[in-house]
Specification:
Distance between the termini: 40 Å
Structural class: alpha/beta
Number of strands: 8
CATH architecture: Alpha-Beta Complex
Helix content: 40-55%
CATH topology: 2-enoyl-CoA Hydratase, Chain A, domain 1
CATH superfamily: 2-enoyl-CoA Hydratase, Chain A, domain 1
Strand content: 15-25%
Largest sheet: 8 strands, mixed
Number of helices: 13
Number of domains: 1
Order of helices and strands: EEHEEHHEHEHHEHEHHHHHH
Radius of gyration: 18 Å
């Protein structure tokens, strides 16, 4: 297992025994890397094992960022050497699959950039709600010659259809909350001042109902809508393979030179900067 980061990157706010807020807090950009994995696994395990929790809302404490891309500073071996999770999948796809299958209703409250892993967490959640002004969703990986690895090809295509999924994944463009709602990428998008109240009211209402009944409804919906693990696993293999290719190594190095993972403007406009590498 990856070395545990000393600083907590996830905080669990138990609004009640049945309603938890999972607050992502890894400033300045909410990157996701090998040191994030043990902490995220602990969160997922808690959701799976707690007998009372019914609803979990994923949200961010970092202004401008929900959850962003994978951390490219640690060597690739820091990720590839990690043992598989309980599903038999590598850690990140394992945890995303488990969120989808857990007997807990998961809600992504998206304020800020949901880029790469952030989009993958949103897609793995049962519901997604976004800020009109503040949410930006994207899969920028094409700009760095990378294949996304956390299951977005299979999940996004099921959610918004083949054409729109290909548009998102092949252009690397970002979409704001209102367009994400039109595409079906998120359930609904709200003026930023209304987002918290709506999600809290919905989560509180769902948490008031019977846990066994909620779990049964989710189980049956899952049977009709969730991709099989056999579809998710190859995406991670494709991601790892793409990281090692010369084109990806070149583009990642160029982005790092521009300020990736250090410069606020680069992280805030990552889709734009990734696109400039090919001009």
């Amino acid at each position: 297992m990856a070395k545990q980061s000393k600083r907590p990157q996830f905080n669990i706010d138990k609004c009640s025994p049945s309603y938890w807020r999972i607050i992502i807090d890894n400033p300045p950009f909410n990157l996701f890397g090998p040191d994030t994995i043990p902490q995220f696994d602990a969160v997922v395990t808690a959701l799976e094992s707690d007998s009372q929790v019914k609803v979990a809302v994923f949200e961010s404490a970092v202004p401008g960022f929900f959850l962003t891309h994978y951390d490219f500073i640690p060597p690739l071996e820091a990720t590839t050497k990690l043992p598989p999770g309980p599903t038999g999948l590598p850690p990140l796809p394992d945890m995303l699959v488990r969120i989808g299958r857990a007997p807990v209703v998961s809600i992504a409250k998206i304020r800020g950039r949901a880029t790469g892993v952030g989009s993958e967490l949103a897609l793995a959640s049962d519901m997604r709600f976004a800020s009109n002004e503040g949410a930006l969703l994207s899969h920028w990986e094409i700009g760095a010659a990378l294949v996304p690895g956390g299951g977005p090809m299979t999940r996004l295509s099921r959610l918004i259809g083949r054409g729109r999924a290909l548009e998102m994944l092949m252009s690397g463009n970002e979409v704001a909350g209102e367009l994400a709602e039109r595409y079906g990428y998120v359930n609904r998008s709200f003026p930023d001042v209304e987002l918290d109240e709506f999600v809290d009211t919905l989560a509180t209402r769902i948490a008031s109902f019977d846990k066994e009944t909620l779990a049964a409804i989710k189980l049956h919906v899952n049977k009709e809508t969730l991709p099989p693990e056999s579809s998710v696993a190859p995406e991670w293999d494709a991601f790892i393979a793409s990281v090692g290719r010369p084109a990806a190594q070149e583009k990642i190095a160029q982005l790092m030179a521009l300020g990736l993972q250090h410069d606020q403007d680069v992280e805030s406009r990552l889709s734009y900067y990734a696109g400039t590498l090919w001009r």
